[in-house]
Amino acid sequence: MEEITLEELRKWPKDSYKLIDIRDEGLVAYGMIPGALHIPMEAIEEGISTDLMNIANDRKLVFYCQIGRKSRELDDVKSLEGRNIYSLEGGYIGYVKSGTLDDSAREEKQHRAEESIRKKYHKQLFTPFAKACKSYRLIQEGDRIAVCISGGKDSMLMAKLFQEIKRHRQCNFELTYLVMDPGYNKDNRELIESNARALGIPITIFESDIFDAVDNIEKNPCYLCARMRRGYLYSKAKELGCNKIALGHHYDDVIETILMGMLQGAQIQTMMPKLHSTNFEGMELIRPLYLVRESDICAWRDYNDLHFLQCACHFTDTCTTCHEDGTTSSKRLETKKLIAELKKTNPYIESNIFKSVENVNLDTVIAYKKDGIRHNFLDEY
C-alpha cells in the first residue's frame, strides 16, 4: 500500500478520493478528519461494510488510523482487491499536528473558545460547572488547586472553566495547570503542548516512568497505571503547595460507573464529586465537571475545531478511557451503548441512574458497607 502525506492529499480534487477512518468507536468519538467516513477496520477485513461497497470503484480510498500504522496493514485485504488504496501518513495525530497555528491565529482560537464558554455554551458548560463547585463545596477560600490535564477534551475544557470561574473573583484561590508525562511518544507530548498554547493554558509538565513500569504487567495493567498516575499527581501537587487535585470526570462517567458497578462488579457505588486522599495527608480530589454532559463537551470541542489527545497508553497508543476502576474503552463503550439503548424507551434513564445513588433507602437494603465494615439488615431486624 502506498503512503500519502496530507500535503499531497490536499492537492487532489476532492471528488477523486474518499477518506476512511478505520479506528474504533472510542477513538472516533474524540474527533475525525472533516469529510471522512467511519468504517471500522474489522468490517473492512471481513468484507461486510456496505458503505465501502457503495463507494464508486474509480475513487481512490485513503485510509487512516490513529498514528498511521494500522492503516498500512490493509494492503492484502480481499475486499479491497482491485481498488486504488492509500494509507495516510501520520494518521489522525498527523492531521491534528498539521494545524499548528501562528501567534495571531492562536489568539483568535483562544478568544473564540473562551467566548463560546461565556455565550453559546454558558448554560451547558459553565452553569453546571459552577453548580457542582457550589453544591459540593469543591472550591473554598485559600485553595491551591492542581488542575490535572491529560491532554483530552475533558481536562482541557476543565482548565478553561477554571480560568473563567476565577475571572468572576467570587472566591480567592490559586490554580496550577499540571500535566504529567507518563512516557508519551514525542508526537503526543507535542500535541498536548500545542493545544495548551492555542487555548492559553500555562501548563507545568513533569515526567514519570509509569508506562515503562506497567509495560510488563499482564494482569490489570490499566488499573495499576491509573492508580500510579493518581499517586504521582498527588505527590507533585503537594510538592507545588497545592491542597487539591482536580480531575476531568464528567456526568456520563458517573452514570456509567454506577451501572458498571452493578453489572460488572456486583456492587452499588458511584464516582464521588470529592474525596479525601488516604495516602497524602491534607490532600483532596475534586471533580468539577461532575454535572457536565459529555455531548456538550464534544459540541464545544467541535464548534471550536479543537482536536485533543486521548490517553495514548504505552500498550496501544490509543487507549482512551482507562479509569480508576481498571476499566478500559471496550467496557465503557459497551455500557455507554446500553444506556443509549435504554434511553430510546425511557428519556429519563440517565438522570434516574444518577439520582439512584442519591435516593438510597437503607430500610430496603439487604446489606451495606460503611468504613469497610459490613452491615446486614438482620442485625436490627
Please supply descriptive tags for the structure shown above:
alpha/beta, Oxidized Rhodanese, domain 1, 2 domains, 13 strands, 5-stranded parallel beta sheet, 381 residues, 6-stranded mixed beta sheet, 41% helix, globular, 15 helices, Rossmann fold
Model description:
By secondary structure, this protein is of the alpha/beta class. The chain has 15 helices and 13 strands. The termini are far apart. Helix content is 41%, strand content 14%. Strands 8-7-6-9-11-10 form a six-stranded mixed β-sheet, sandwiched between helices. The protein has a five-stranded parallel β-sheet with strand order 1-5-4-2-3. Strands 12-13 form a two-stranded antiparallel sheet. The radius of gyration is 23 Å and the shape is globular. The protein has two domains: 96 residues, 3-Layer(aba) Sandwich (Oxidized Rhodanese, domain 1), CATH 3.40.250.10; 233 residues, Rossmann fold, CATH 3.40.50. The longest helix has 19 residues. Helix 5 packs parallel to helix 9 and helix 12 packs across helix 14.
Task: Summarize this entry quickly.
The chain has 381 residues and is of the alpha/beta class.
Order of helices and strands: EHEHEHHEEHHHEHEHEHHEHEEHHHEE
Quaternary structure = single chain
What is Rg?
23 Å
What gross morphology would you assign? globular
CATH-level-2 architecture of the largest domain: 3-Layer(aba) Sandwich
Q: If you average the pLDDT, what whole number results?
A: 88
CATH fold description of the largest domain: Rossmann fold
Helix/strand class: alpha/beta
CATH superfamily of the largest domain: HUPs
Terminal Cα separation, in Å? Answer: 72 Å
The CATH class designation of the largest domain is: Alpha Beta
Q: How are the strands ordered across the major sheet?
A: 8-7-6-9-11-10
Helicity range = 40-55%
Q: Report the β-strand fraction as a percent range.
A: 5-15%
